[in-house]
Amino acid sequence: MTADIPVHGVVPGTLVGLLYDYLDAHGLAADTLLGETRPDPGPHGLARYPAAGWQGLLERAAARLNDPLLGLKLGQTATAAHFGVMGYVLHNCADLGAAFERYRRFERLIYDMEPVQFSQDADALVLEWGLGHGRPGPLVDETAITALVAFARALTGRTLAPLSVHFVNPRPADVSPYQDYFRCPVHFEEPHTRIRIPRPMLDLPLQQADPALLGLLEAQAEALLAQLPPGGQLEDDVRRLIARLLPDREPTLAAVAERIGLSERTLHRRLAARGVHFRMLRDDTRRQLAQRYLADPRLTLAEVALLLGYAEQSAFSRAFRNWTGESPGRYQARNALP
């Protein structure tokens, strides 16, 4: 089942900075609230942050702010800077259709998770994302789609409305905030995340188009894209081995490297080339497994702790509270399947 696929992929540090900027703008100490310092975006904003870690940060912030609409609000504050070089490429395209074409071409620079699929029907350009890389959850999806619409509106200077927006996540109790923002029908519990852009919108000129600057920025984007490591299964393999080792022993970098058939140093280097750190993968894998186990009412908290490699339930409870902002008991009471 797709719900069981661990979330994998990466996002740039500049996008993660969107959350820190949002919290700072609201007078909140982001580092304290999230329990983690702002990640360094690296040269040209190319530092990579695990998608599961991005999911965790958003969920932690939403829980501590008691704001399930955080993704919808956060996406509206996205600027070109949060998309790195690609944001400025889009800014300088001639029209919105050209901007979407560049988005497809350079997507990995801002959203290296599930690749977007483009298609057209009689009325619209359709952008669609599947579930092959797992379910990152409502906050990740809503931040991404809202940011896309907000950026299109900023580029054209118009309050554009898609024909429809579709999310794979459960329907919230109140859909009116989504309908009010997107100004179109918004559907939930759909097979894929999808947004339908009316064909006439694609011809709208952009306010700051500069063909000469666009050429320079595209060349830079192409060079940055070439620097990205190729997609592959290494991260997935590491996560699977971590999950397999957890009930019996602490999954160290050395233990995982031995089973993959690499030296510890080589595995560290290959993960680092993807902007991923082993410790973060281990924590993200533990968190995802914890949430999956807690949804099973047959498992006690003590059994979940043991499955995750904790000798004591109290250590698991502390870690879970750091990940999510709530106790595992409270999470289980809200999310256990019937």
How is the secondary structure organized here?
Blueprint: E1 10-12, H1 13-25, H2 30-34, E2 48-50, H3 51-65, H4 70-75, H5 85-91, H6 96-106, E3 117-120, E4 124-129, H7 138-156, E5 164-166, H8 176-182, E6 186-187, E7 193-198, H9 211-227, H10 234-245, H11 253-260, H12 264-273, H13 278-294, H14 301-307, H15 313-324, H16 328-335
Parallel strand pairs: 5-6
Antiparallel strand pairs: 1-2, 3-4, 4-7, 5-7
Helix pairs in contact: 5-6, 5-9, 10-11, 10-13, 11-12, 14-15
Concise description?
The protein is an alpha+beta fold and 338 residues long.
Can you give a write-up of this model?
The protein folds into two domains: 2-227, H-NOX domain (Alpha-Beta Complex); 234-335, Orthogonal Bundle (Arc Repressor Mutant, subunit A), CATH 1.10.10.60. The strands form two sheets. Strands 3-4-7-5-6 form a five-stranded mixed β-sheet. The chain is an alpha+beta fold and 338 residues long. The protein has 16 helices and seven strands. α10 (234-245) packs across α11, α10 crosses α13 (278-294) and α14 (301-307) crosses α15. The chain is globular and about 60 Å long. β3 (117-120) and β4 form a beta hairpin.
Count of distinct strands: 7
CATH architecture of the largest domain: Alpha-Beta Complex
Number of separate domains: 2
Envelope shape:
globular
Poorly predicted residue ranges? none
